[in-house]
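Forum > Structural Biology > Help requests

Title: Can anyone predict the 3D structure of RNA-binding protein?

Hi all, first post here. I have the sequence for RNA-binding protein but no way to get a structure on my laptop. I'd be grateful if someone could post the structure tokens.
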Amino acid sequence: MAEMKTACLVKSLAGHDKDEYYIIIRVQGEYAYLSDGRKHPLNRPKRKNIKHLQPVNEYDGILREKLTGGRPAEDEEIARWIRSRISSRRERKCQKQT
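Reply #1:
Sure, ran it for you. Structure tokens for RNA-binding protein below:
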């Protein structure tokens, strides 16, 4: 299993939010605190067991620096980055199928 790090993009594998994408805000023990910038903003992150998450092996260095360095990150910045990663993954998937 890949290591769960701050600002890593993950996909939910179980629960009512299955197949949703999030960014890891922090990891404590067996739980990760996640944000999608919309339903779960930075001030109200979602707590989820890491065994129910699949790392996508993409992360944003600038967001990681902000989250670990105590600098302010914005919810819109997180939502925009997640949308861009998901759309680029779908484009690559469509190109492989053709």
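The two ends are 30 Å apart (CA to CA). The beta strands are 8-12, 21-28, 31-35, 46-49, 53-59.
Shout if anything looks off.
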